[in-house]
Design goal:
heterodimer, A: mainly alpha, about 70% helix, B: about 80 residues, mainly alpha, 3 helices
Chain lengths: ~450, ~80
């Protein structure tokens, strides 16, 4: 392939230079003239020589060939740097990029044809595609993806803006009507801490991979099923793993309807799945208005390290519930979160560069993320069963799985699974309680990680 | 160092549960206080009354218009025959 392209170029050069051979004989005259011009305005000509050197057409073609993607993808060069400024291996310069092109195409397919979180997966995949373009170096510090990354991910800004929007979209009503369901949202966080132990044990006692405690912590946050939180933690504790963590986190959020049901069914009996829950009481406006402030104040006193996440969330929710700044809350819910989503997706995608994604660690992260997610789901369901032992007011264990904070997908899964056994059993609103509590729970878990490792 | 991760697990889950438990009790307290001292005013039926007759008259006007059109239509048909 390489030889073929090259010989083709040579052939073109020969034909071109034979055409150009005649005018060359008259050069002596014009050279004299230009020499006179040069002596008259010497500054101008030296400037010209520095910026552009005359070359034969042959050289020109060869030089141009070396700037094409074909050349960059066929023959790896020395001295090509990754976006971290380290030398890039031959594999990552050649096959790696091509493989990543295919990976992004698969992500396009999943987002467009299968509808897996298209709002995030598409920007991420396109960012990944651009990041793997050779020579242009868009993911580098001067490329536009690199600039977006520095602007909002490296400093943790974008996840917080997303949290603001999510807060403005959240209704705490179901949680306020039945606050004890928040315990289910706490149980699901066991996915995070259980996986932390697992990841670290595997790095300690086996040679499969080697994660530090910080990296294990960043990976295990995937179990919270909360994309922004994962990115927030990864950018603080393990920026080198950010791409894989973000992709794993968002893919599992999209895969909630596939991953959760088998676990939920395996851990419950038909009788339990048929449990009907008491209708939720009406929640007053004042309760909804004061709740975000209450949560924020608790964070202030107990865990200020979680304050950025919870603070942004409470801000969005408070603005919405006041009802006097509809324009602002409307912006947070739509315009702002959409803009930030585009930037966030592209910046995360820039971490899909071959040199960072095609490493053994990525597979480990995808595997551990799945484990974290499954453990979280199981812990939520088991917690619901445990609560039923101690209380007469029975909980349908299917809503326990909604404790992972993928809002509102996890709650919808609970509803759907419940309807399989009893088509008139409406679990959605009951499941929203643990679901939003899960968001708070994983923000608290993230706060613990930051407090320990910062 | 492996023990370290187990310690973190207990600390983490402990904090999450401590936080959520406090949150649950504070929320219950808050709701109780609000429902007792600041109950939401029951829906003001008087306020909604003026709107009620507006709609029926509107409906009546529509029905009248339809009836009128029907009659007109019948007449035209009769005359045509």
């Amino acid at each position: 392939m390489k030889r073929l392209v090259f010989s083709l170029l040579m052939l073109m050069n020969i034909s071109f230079s034979s055409m150009a051979s005649e005018p060359v004989t008259t050069v002596s005259d014009t050279a004299l003239q230009s020499a006179i011009v040069e002596t008259e305005t010497p500054k101008k000509s030296t400037y010209r020589e520095e910026t552009y050197q005359a070359m034969s057409f042959n050289e020109m073609m060869v030089n141009f060939y070396h700037t094409t993607g074909i050349s960059a993808l066929i023959e790896p060069k020395k001295g090509v740097l990754t976006s971290h400024g380290e030398p890039m291996s031959d594999f990552h310069q050649t096959w790696g990029r091509l493989i990543m092109f295919l990976v992004t195409f698969v992500l396009f397919y999943l987002a467009i044809a299968k509808g897996f979180e298209p709002l995030l997966l598409l920007p991420i995949a396109f960012g990944g595609l651009l990041a793997n373009v050779p020579i242009a170096n868009m993911a580098g510090p001067d490329g536009f993806l690199g600039i977006i990354y520095e602007m909002g991910i490296a400093n943790g800004l974008f996840p917080l803006l997303i949290f603001m929007g999510v807060g403005a979209m959240t209704d705490f009503g179901p949680l306020l009507a039945n606050p004890r369901l928040a315990l289910l949202g706490g149980a699901a966080q066991f996915g995070i801490f259980g996986t932390l132990v697992g990841a670290y044990a595997l790095s300690e006692f086996t040679t499969i991979f080697d994660f530090t405690l910080q990296q294990s912590a960043a990976i295990s946050i995937i179990g919270g099923a909360d994309g922004p939180t994962s990115i927030f933690i990864a950018s603080t504790l393990a920026p080198e793993l950010l791409g894989a963590i973000a992709v794993a986190s968002y893919s599992y959020m999209a895969l909630v309807p596939i991953i959760q049901p088998p676990i939920m069914r395996a851990l419950t009996t038909t009788e339990e799945r048929k449990i009907r829950m008491r209708t939720l009481r009406h929640v007053t406006k004042l309760e909804k208005l004061l709740f975000p402030i209450l949560v924020l104040m608790l964070i202030v006193f107990i865990l200020p390290d979680a304050a950025p996440l919870v603070g942004a969330f409470a801000l969005g929710n408070f603005f919405k519930e006041t009802g006097v700044v509809d324009r602002l809350s409307d912006t947070m819910q739509h315009a702002l979160i959409n803009i930030v989503t585009i930037f966030l997706g592209l910046a995360v995608g820039s971490k899909l560069a071959a040199d960072q994604f095609l490493v053994v660690d990525t597979l480990a992260i995808l595997g551990l993320g799945l484990l974290a997610f499954s453990v979280g789901t199981a812990a939520g369901v088991l917690m619901a069963k445990l609560m039923n032992v101690f209380s007469d007011d029975k909980i349908n264990p299917l809503i326990g799985s909604a404790g992972v904070s993928a809002v509102p997908m996890a709650a919808r899964v609970s509803q759907k699974e419940g309807m399989k056994d009893d088509p008139t059993n409406m679990l959605l609103m009951h499941a929203m309680g643990p679901n939003v509590a899960g968001v708070i729970g994983s923000a608290v878990a993230a706060g613990v990680m930051i407090a320990l490792f910062k | 160092m492996f023990l370290e991760s187990i310690k973190i697990m207990f600390l983490g889950m402990g904090t999450v549960y401590l936080f959520l438990t406090i949150m649950i009790y504070m929320t219950k307290l808050m709701s109780k206080l609000i429902l007792r001292y600041f109950p939401e005013a029951p829906k003001d039926f008087h306020a909604s009354i003026p709107k009620v007759p507006a709609q029926p008259t509107n409906e009546n006007a529509k029905i009248a218009a339809i009836l009128g059109a029907l009659q007109h239509h019948h007449q035209i048909e009769k005359e045509g025959k």
